[in-house]
């Protein structure tokens, strides 16, 4: 059982939620604050004072006061009218993370929802009845309204859910799990729909995929240095200390550790004819270090947002006030997601250049296209084309979504963040880069074998052995796509963080 501590969740905990299912619970101390918040809402209703979203309409309709007997109907109508998402459904892992973020936010006790309603959501989560949430339809302001409406609609027994990979009517899915559909009270629909949990959840998925790709890219880059008989001088700590960039200093240390003890390097240390290696080998600390710093900044922003209360209006039980603001505006998430896309796209761009270097015998000193009998065999020729296509695709995907805005709700919501799209495309970029790195790892392992009987460092030989346990050596042309897929799947297991030690894991948290 995983206990969610609202406002205090960590990135390792969020990674675990995204990676696998585990039942959740809330600390007992949450109940008092949640009940006090709900009581504040009921007091406002009883007093008949107009309060946005509690007994008024929404958006441009906020001036219309709603009679008490229609307040529950108001919330139900809100959910139904806002469930307008389109496009492919979000996968179960992403929905699971979004669901957990929403529960934790409501449990902080500033949203005016009932404890019983919150427990119903937890029961749905623990029964693994996942709402079907279309991926498109949010502009990332006034909260992720459409996708969160689909989540809420499913909890009401309407719309669709996915159980064990099968899409079912929500009413049937809840019935199978023995869960009663929720009936919304005053403000609850709005509290569930407002918030940045969808854009934040997707951005976290992008971050976690970017971390996987980054870890593998550092390892792949070190392997490529040895495969190309490159120099380890560019990783000398003195070079990086006098510049002072923290990510650069840290990443240079990772390369030194990975390459330490390489017999391949020692074999040509005093015989180098090249004065300097190409940038894709030599400037790895500078490029990867900058990307490392940006990923760390994005991680910090997303962790804050994951623990935030981001709906509207907010209920403060200590004073009995309900305050309208704009915490639902996801600009921080949009910037973080765009930064992830930009940084990880650069990781992929650098990797693609190293693949090009390895297959070019005039630069690498390796057989053309990393295969014997080139001509009758094409080797890695078109695998590089795949890497180039992904790197090129990322140039468009990395264009910031956060610089765009379109007014909505009859100009009441006149500036929006586009955070949800920023997060979605950051996921796409991260996955593309992971596949580029998969190709480089295959190429670098092939290159290392052409240096035999010399061996690389102990760590890098362990990487090589791991890969050869999944993908065999490329001796002649064969069906290549499954090899790339196998390498990609290996990266997605997070195995490469183990080759970098705990220092990397702790640095990007």
UniProtKB/TrEMBL annotation:
Contains an active site 4-methylidene-imidazol-5-one (MIO), which is formed autocatalytically by cyclization and dehydration of residues Ala-Ser-Gly. Transmembrane segments: none annotated. One of its GO terms (molecular function) is histidine ammonia-lyase activity. It catalyses: L-histidine = trans-urocanate + NH4(+). Pfam families: Lyase_aromatic. The keyword Protein biosynthesis does not apply. Keywords: Cytoplasm, Histidine metabolism, Lyase. Its main location: cytoplasm. There is a cross-link at residues 141-143 (5-imidazolinone (Ala-Gly)). The modification 2,3-didehydroalanine (Ser) is found at residue 142. Its EC number is 4.3.1.3. Pathway: Amino-acid degradation; L-histidine degradation into L-glutamate; N-formimidoyl-L-glutamate from L-histidine: step 1/3. InterPro entries: Aromatic_Lyase, Fumarase/histidase_N, HutH, L-Aspartase-like, Phe/His_NH3-lyase_AS. It is found in: Cytoplasm. PANTHER family: HISTIDINE AMMONIA-LYASE (PTHR10362). Belongs to the PAL/histidase family. This is Histidine ammonia-lyase.
């Amino acid at each position: 059982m995983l206990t969610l501590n609202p406002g205090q969740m960590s990135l390792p905990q969020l990674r675990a939620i995204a990676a696998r299912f585990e039942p959740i619970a809330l600390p007992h101390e949450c109940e008092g604050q949640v009940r006090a918040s709900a009581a504040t809402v009921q007091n406002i209703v009883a007093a008949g004072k107009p309060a946005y979203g509690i007994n008024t309409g929404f958006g441009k309709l906020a001036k219309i006061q709603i009679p008490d007997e229609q307040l529950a109907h108001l919330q139900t109508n809100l959910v139904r009218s806002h469930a307008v998402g389109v496009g492919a459904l979000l996968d179960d892992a992403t929905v699971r993370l979004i669901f957990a973020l929403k529960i934790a936010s409501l449990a902080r006790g500033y949203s005016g929802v009932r404890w019983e309603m919150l427990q119903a959501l937890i029961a749905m989560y623990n029964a693994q009845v996942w709402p079907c949430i279309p991926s498109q339809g949010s502009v990332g302001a006034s909260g992720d309204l459409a996708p969160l409406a689909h989540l809420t609609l499913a909890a009401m027994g309407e719309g669709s859910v996915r159980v064990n990979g099968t899409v079912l009517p929500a009413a049937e899915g809840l019935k199978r799990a023995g869960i009663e559909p929720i009936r919304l009270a005053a403000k609850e629909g709005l509290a569930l729909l407002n918030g940045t949990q969808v854009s934040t959840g997707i951005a976290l998925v992008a971050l976690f995929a970017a971390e996987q790709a980054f870890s593998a890219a550092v390892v792949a880059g070190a392997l490529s240095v040895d495969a190309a008989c490159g120099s380890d001088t560019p990783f000398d700590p003195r070079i990086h200390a006098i510049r002072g960039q923290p990510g650069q200093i840290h990443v240079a240390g990772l390369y030194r550790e990975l390459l330490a003890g390489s017999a391949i390097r020692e074999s040509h240390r005093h015989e180098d004819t090249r004065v300097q290696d190409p940038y894709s080998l030599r400037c790895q600390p500078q490029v990867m270090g900058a990307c490392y710093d940006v990923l760390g900044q994005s991680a910090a922003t997303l962790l804050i947002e994951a623990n935030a209360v981001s709906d509207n209006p907010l209920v403060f039980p200590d004073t009995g006030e309900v305050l309208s603001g704009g915490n639902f505006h996801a600009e921080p998430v949009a910037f973080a997601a765009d930064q992830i896309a930009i940084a990880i796209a650069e990781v992929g761009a650098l990797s693609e250049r190293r693949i090009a270097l390895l297959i070019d015998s005039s630069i690498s000193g390796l057989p053309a296209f990393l295969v014997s009998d080139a001509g009758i065999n094409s080797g890695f020729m078109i695998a590089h084309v795949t890497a180039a296509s992904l790197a090129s695709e990322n140039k468009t995907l990395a264009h910031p979504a956060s610089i765009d805005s379109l007014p909505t709700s009859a100009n009441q919501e006149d500036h929006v963040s586009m955070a949800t799209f920023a997060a979605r495309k950051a996921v796409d970029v991260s996955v593309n880069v992971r596949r580029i790195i998969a190709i480089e790892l295959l190429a670098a392992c092939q290159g290392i074998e052409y240096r035999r009987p010399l061996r690389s460092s102990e760590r890098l030989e362990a990487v090589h052995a791991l890969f050869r346990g999944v993908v065999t050596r490329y001796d002649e042309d064969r069906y290549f796509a499954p090899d790339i897929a196998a390498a990609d799947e290996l990266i997605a297991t997070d195995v490469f963080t183990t080759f970098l030690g705990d220092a990397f894991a702790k640095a990007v948290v």
